[in-house]
Amino acid sequence: MSLDVLTFGLNHHSAPVSVRERVSMSGELIRPALDGLRSAFGGSLKEATILSTCNRTEIYCAASPEIAEHVPRWLADFNTLETGILKPHLYQYNKDQAVRHAFRVASGLDSMVLGETQILGQMKTAVRAASDAGAMGTLLNQLFQKTFSVAKEVRTQTAIGSESVSMAAAAVRLAQRVFGDISATKVLFIGAGEMIELCSAHFAAQQPKSMVVANRTLERAESLACKFDGSTMKLADLPNRLAEFDIVVSCTASSLPILGLGMVQKASKARRHQPMVMVDLAVPRDIESEVGQLNDIYLYTVDDLGRYVQQGNDSRQAAVVQAEAIIDGRVQNFMHWMQSRAVVPVIRDLNEGANQISAAELDRARKMLAKGEDPEAVLEQFARSLTQKFLHAPMVALNRSQGAEREQLIGCLPKLFPYQKNEH
Fold this sequence. Notes:
Strand order of the largest sheet: 7-6-5-8-9-10
Number of domains: 3
Radius of gyration: 31 Å
CATH class of the largest domain: Alpha Beta
Distance between the termini: 50 Å
Number of helices: 16
Oligomer: single chain
Largest sheet: 6 strands, parallel
Shape: elongated
């Protein structure tokens, strides 16, 4: 069965955060999703990798093209969604377009923050998870090794990542729009993952009055807080202490909101309606969307930050052109490898068939020699018989063909069986 590289997914270009959060898969869901995917499609899907981040959920697979129409329903069912809600936001790429998409994603060309490097690490994590689940094979292994190589080449040879405004930097700038100088503000970080760590570094550079980390695991909160001489608090204390903070940045792996409308209303009242900036970088979201309707609360989601970041992308368009040219060349190389790989079984079958013919003719020649027949005559018979056997199938095909098929065979046969006439 012929396998193609297929990609299915949705991202910040195709779907709002309200849809993305409903198909986002945390680390512990990846293995069950991969197992479920392979179970659903059996031998039609040999390999798979799932990449799920704040901005995208994508399935990369080596599979038969026939499964394409059924994957949207599987993805919807796995996430307990109606297919009609999901399907308008899904995209699908096949063959060279799927390869190109993987290269562009890893190179930061498909990110909210053009040229950002975080996605490359996330792709490597996704590949390791698929490998641990036994879902990787020759085709996807080769694809992702080439993907990582192309991403390195793009970042080395172009200025795609220069002057980029990160999501963390955007969070600081949006807070400055509200407060101006934020040195007098108190900042709360909810979570202690990579994104919060990046944000804390950017806010620490502005020297706010205080910085506090709240996290489910206190040890991780303390480890992060000590990097900027901050303090920690328990998540359970949020309802009573939320009013203390001017800026709240949240990014956890919680499947449900941590900060609800009622809690924030209470905090706003306690603050006597002084402004509060809330940045929700989580998908699924940590802060209920209704919070953004409160008069004194400035709520920003990943999509809001993305729109702000896009303003700085125009200056890097020359680098994008360079990067796309590199990617186009590497896509051609990979597709050539795939096509060469498809020929391998044919070559193997040809060799096996030729070896069987040779073995049979050699066995016949040995028996003739054992009977005492003239060696010269045996060799002539061996060569003549071997040639006839090798040429039998193409000669039959040529004799039976007509019209365009015959013309095509006449053009191909000299390439498959080249010979030179003796010049006299």
